[in-house]
Amino acid sequence: MKNMMTLSLLALSFLTLMAGTAFAGGGAEKEGWEAWKLVVYHAVNLSILLFVLYKLAGKNVVSALKSRSERVSADITEASRLHEEASGLLEQYKSQLAGFEAEASGLLDDYRAMGEAERQRIIDEAHQEAERIKTEAKRVADNEATRAREALESEIVDRAVAEAEAVIRKQLTEADHSRLVNDYFGQLDQSVRSGQ
């Protein structure tokens, strides 16, 4: 019922305003009171409209504006709180990021140091292996040189004996041969007798 009455008053106000607009659009220029009569009519018409609107919807409009103001105020307060919270999170993330960067830099330095230590260890092992190989090669070379020298000496001795034998056979007569055999057996006999 109240809604119907409100709707009727709004329709009446609308028609009244429209009539004033239609009236304002007509006629020739007027002077004096006639010119001001139209302005006064519009002012009265507007005052009635505002009064009717205030009586019918004033409380609703005021409460709507008040609730809207409260909502906007609450939204501003919430936005301010969220902004503060976001600022705190931002600072926290910035400090964490700085910590991560420092940690990453420290880890990178550690890995570089470990890599350098591993590189030095590999170089040291390579030097030790090279020294071992040199020592082994020198030993093998010395052994081979000794073996070659011994083989050469043995060959020289064998050739010298063979040549000496050949020279002696050429120059040795049967009488020299008998005399050498007798001298040898005489020395052998004498050494056996002196040993008893």
How would you describe the overall organization of this protein?
It is a single chain. 94% of the residues lie in helices and 0% in strands. The protein is rod-shaped and about 190 Å long. It has helices spanning 2-24, 33-171, 174-195. It starts with a helix and ends with a helix. It has 196 residues and is an all-alpha fold. Helix 1 packs across helix 2. The model has no long low-confidence stretch (mean pLDDT 82).
The DSSP helix count reads: 3
Q: Tell me the span between the first and last alpha carbons.
A: 167 Å
Portion in beta strands: under 5%
Helix amount: over 70%
* Mean of all residue-level pLDDT scores: 82
Write the layout of secondary structure elements.
Layout: H1 2-24, H2 33-171, H3 174-195
Helix pairs in contact: 1-2
Q: Can you describe this structure in just a few lines?
A:
By secondary structure, the protein is an all-alpha fold.
